[in-house]
């Protein structure tokens, strides 16, 4: 497979956009991370609440859940404000359910105790990959919230079992690419979001053929790219958390 | 990997449940198919409407869209009626978006002309795999609607480019299984829905680790199973349509 | 009054369409009945829930309630899905309130104990008379649910005091007709739905002049027809339940 | 049948409560009538709008429609405000649909021309019979709106074909009663709302057995009462309109 | 500043429209006041409920809250019914929040005890100043509800600390005017609603420049007018309550 | 009046918190301003849309409108996400209506032409004064959007007639203070939001007595403070826009 598609700013097919992770971006949340994948900017806050949803009451276990939103003009053209329209779109719900599942997969809910960590992922600026940036940033915010719980002696050991990060891959004009930006995403034939743990397992895999169907060989190429990208993101997370 | 999990009714790990496809299940729709995967029963109707949604107006192209619902007591315990609650759940929206994308992938929207095919997939009885049964049945209903359009001389050639079918696979107690029924789905560690075309390409791939993350080897095993299952479903579709 | 209107398939003015009652149509509900009045097909399930709505809490009495829905393409042309629109129409609410009142009228709520029977009536195919078919079928489903409660020793005697069934009657081109099908319903001047018990009392009576007002003599003719039709339906219920 | 139930204020079983009809109760509406059935007070306004709903566009015909509401403290204990709750109850929708059908039955929509008469019936004080008072008052308001249309030369002849009025009847402790007030309505076994035209035909008939089913003889007794009551209401309407 | 604008019916710039306060306008509410500012008529009911909203539970304090509505044809042209549209407008919410705050300001919530007074202000006829009439009338209704609580010995001393009334002022064609009616309100450059207590303090002040911004001098002129008008309203309240 | 209340960080009673205005904070909007009043941070974007709402169609005039939102964890404790709850609160609607009116007051809508400027004010971090920061920042964003329109030659002269800015003032423990932060706002007796133009006129004035009513003298003291604060904000706006 020969990479023929020319990416913006001479980016290599297997290169991430510059990743920046800023902790303590806002003051009040137990975790507050601005994560940037190039021009995509997502504010991920983690809020600890000392109660659980009904289905966990009395279970001794906690809960980790996520909500996702996009500021109306995060995008190239203004979108409707979901609060004004009175409901969240199917896309928004799909994304926030994905973020929630991804984070829960690395949490020991019993060790968390009967409390909830709310992860709010709000897109300040969108240039493709907002859901993968959200998952990657939400992990760092959740880690900070857990550190706060430990510092407050509300828990005695971390309920976090592993790290988790996510990246998009896709095929544009026949070329498999890592970390699609908006113009690439719009032009791609196949689009895949991959969520993996620090130990290399898959948590979520969502591949969609936009135009033509994709082959198993193409899928394998995309997963090799994703594997590389996620390793870089895990390193960025560790560095941001001072664990590197 | 040794298959140790014992399935109901001596089913082999790589066996589908009995598949039944009944065309003309109701009288008025242009396509009306009851599809059964074992105890899962989904009524898929295809309705032709001579207009398109706003984003297609004047484009010369048609549209294919899907809605999904579940009768309140399709399931083991009664669920809320979404119409009474006043909104569709995130799960429902996720599924109907998946069905719509899967079907559009095999349609030449220009050849369809400026009209819409509505695919309504309503679950009469649910025992796991409702979304994959819905996609597989909706294809047959859409095919019947297209035959009706041809018979009515509203179009001169079929806009259907390829067949499409879907199946679930998963890992239960370490065993990769094809076509999960409800009790298997509830117990599984990894759950994957695979949508493929008649020519063997992937349209959608959605894998989720329910408990532990899954490895690339496990994923490959699951995709081999899915590949086999989908081939059987495509044959069942052809037979139902009298094309075999 | 001379019957001049010619009905489809040589049906007599005072004849029901063929009635078919299929019990155990789905697997999971405590009662699950497909009822057919000619081409009208309604799936009626009865679900037992071991709790009551707030207004019955602590009363020692149970509750019987109904919900009604129509699959989008049950009809000649596709209707909106109420769950997608986000609300039930006034017509839907009117019908489900009627079904609930009709069934409660034959129930001894104290003998039911503090539990609820939910009757879900979903129209699979609509050719007129869906609400009357729903009431007639819901009675059989409720009867099965009560048998299940007795078999489970949750109650020691049946809370069902009497049977209940319903039929439509109307005046089309001056001719009083029993059990209107869709084309007759659309053309009728007067339309009446009658709900009666096994012992011949009225439970509900809803007559509407679509065009011209109707006289007392016409009303009496309609009620004679309804009386005959309901007797036939009660017999069909008894036969389906093996009580004949 | 012997009347044994003692009514408040020595009212006879076949007597209406005092009926008062006040025209021009508010200033701006084309028709604005306060109607009182004893302590029940409903403000009925008729508003002319020079357009029709989509299903009447281009038909040359007009439309007559009704909305019903109850002030939160019209009743003995305060009820929720429907606007605050965000939806109209099933009961409200049922009533406003009944009012609309009843009034349309006496209108020649072609003679009305492509315009809409909106009838807003708002209950200021509720002591039983609000829907029948609403229909009876709405007719007077509609009549005033039609007079306004004639005076404005927007139409050249009245589209009103006949008068229409409504009353409730019911059986309380075995006694058939005319025009139930709230305490009677709460205690009744059978409750029937009857809508009739000036020429004595039925427009709507809605009978409900609250407790035990009712017999044909009881129904006939109720309809005799209703017939008498409606005659009195028609006279009151004519007098209010200066037509007596 | 010279008053050049000619008001309807020779009204002076600093004159209120005729104020009428009718207590016991309806039968069931603990307070029920029809207040009229000229052609503006608002029905204000006060309903006592023996419980408080969640944020006051267990506090020992009560709550005073308000809801506002407008009958669809209270206005010159018919407006949508908010209950039918499924939500209250921003304007409605703004007004009912204002009424609630204004009344709470003169209530000693601890002396009220753990109960709620609901103030429902429904506009029967609107000719400008509905929110100020609502506040002024709601005070009288609340006073009656408190008298009822005292008479019922549910409380031993009145929780009302002071009277409260409200009026609008505005600048029309350069002339500062008291108590704007609808045509003045539509034409005004500046519109201010002033809420004051019996002892002369401000509770709420809401000034809006409709066209050009207004100066401090203009604001002072408006507040002088408001001060005079409120004094007259306080006198009218006292007289209506038999306290004058 | 002696200032006795001690403010955080030795702030004087008549001092603003540090004001920072960052233009071009995001990439895609025609105007994108982050405004900070101390710890309060609001992102204000201005989006140009080449169409107007229905009430302006064909008028030759444009429209300026605003929406307001708060990220769930902008505050000390997490608030509900309005999009998830399915509606905007009364407070949110009140604020966005205020922002819209304030900005329209300085716009010549005819000079804008038939297009809309959407002002989205999203609170990233909230420490009191979010609505006044939003108005002050929205003006700068709107100015940038107008410069873009001029640069694109879509308009030939600026429709902005004057600058506009807003500040809160209040009385805390008897001391009149400028620019309340959250803890002051929670403790204040009187809270007033003042919106003024560059030429010193009032656009909006909203004063609320939280506890005790306030006197005319207090109001005058507050307006003197507001006047000073707004002058400082106008200077900050000019400096940010390079007009100083």
The Cα radius of gyration of chain A reads 18 Å
Shape of chain A: globular
Question: What letter string, H or E per element, gives the SSE order of chain A?
Answer: EEEEHHHEHEEHEEH
Helix count of chain A equals: 6
Low-confidence stretches of chain A: none
Largest sheet of chain A: 5 strands, mixed
- What's the oligomerization state? homohexamer
Order of strands across the biggest sheet of chain A? 1-2-3-5-4
Structural class of chain A: alpha+beta
Helix content of chain A: 25-40%
Distance between the termini of chain A: 35 Å
Which two chains share the most extensive interface? A-F, 34 and 34 residues
Strand composition percent of chain A: 25-35%
Average pLDDT for all residues of chain A: 95
Total beta strand runs of chain A: 9
